[in-house]
Amino acid sequence: MLKYHPAASVPADVPRKPFNARGANVRRCQACQLPEQGCICAYKATAAADCEFWLIMHHDELFKPSNTGRLIADVLPTTEVFEWSRIDPPAALLERLADERYQPYLVFPADEPEDQARLLPFQRQTGKTPVFILLDGTWRQARRMFRHSKWLQSLPLISFTPERSSGYGLREAAEESHLCTAEVGIELLKLAGEPAAEVLAHYFHVFNVHYLAGRRGTHQDDAEASRQWLLAQQA
Fold first, then answer.
1. Which band of pLDDT confidence, cut at 50, 70 and 90, is reported for residue 85?
2. DSSP 8-state symbol, 174
3. Those residues with Cβ within 8 angstroms of residue 29's Cβ, 6 or more apart along the chain or in another chain
4. Which interval of the chain is the signal sequence (predicted)?
5. Could you say which DSSP state residue 35 is in?
6. N or C: which terminus of the chain carries fewer CB neighbours within 10 A?
7. Is 102 domain-assigned?
8. 182 lies in which domain range?
9. What's the pTM?
10. Cα 66 to Cα 36: distance, rounded to the nearest angstrom
11. Are strands 157-158 and 80-83 parallel, antiparallel or unpaired?
């Protein structure tokens, strides 16, 4: 299991490597990884929820400042992060999957007939904590993680059709219906009836606006309402 350090967006126990993609020379906040002038650390707000998230991250996502899975970990401190491996699944994750205290759902579109047979509606079981397992990577990476992880094949699937297209402006989705990881988290929290959905939605909006402003040189005014809302939660 990877533990996120409170002052770093990359898990503390993962060796760092140079970030060589676009924006590599930008001076970034070491905590939120946004350009220093767009730092969102002051707006971080945590929330409680009667469900948990386990993120299975592709290795490449651990180092991308544009990754949104870490926003879920920021808002929900119970979130756990595991690095994906096709042949060597994380032992800690396998232990949790076998723990009767949890009610795990693997979140992924059921596009194939054999996948549809695994679909289950969300329904809380008495005495168990619902857990949403998200495959965090690009769409191509997530599909590969889904298809090539035999140790995930026995899990029930949960899938949904988003009511609107993604508002994530940092990467181009393969299809209009594809959401980024944080947006999926928001929809799942809504499905579970968790007020934390609103916290994550505002935090994601601030992240999205600030990141795009740093990339395009635009203003951050569009996030003012969400910034003030998040600050009010800290009061």
1. very high
2. S
3. 35, 36, 39, 41
4. none
5. B
6. C
7. yes
8. 36-234
9. 0.86
10. 14
11. unpaired
Structural tokens at position 127:
């005495």
**Is 12 inside a domain boundary?**
no
Distance CA 209, CA 132 (A): 26
Amino acid at 138: T
**Measuring CA to CA, how many Å separate 87 from each of 40, 94, 96, 137, 151?**
37, 13, 18, 18, 9
> Which H helix or E strand runs over 157?
strand 157-158
Question: CA 81 from chain center: how many Å?
Answer: 10
Give residue-wise pLDDT tens across range 136-175.
Answer: 998 899 999 999 999 999 999 998 777 665 555 544 544 5
* CA-based nearest residue to 27, from 173, 208, 152, 214: 214
Query: Is residue 7 one of the residues assigned to a domain?
Result: no
d(CA 16, CA 178): 29
Q: Which two tokens stand for residue 219?
A: 């203003």
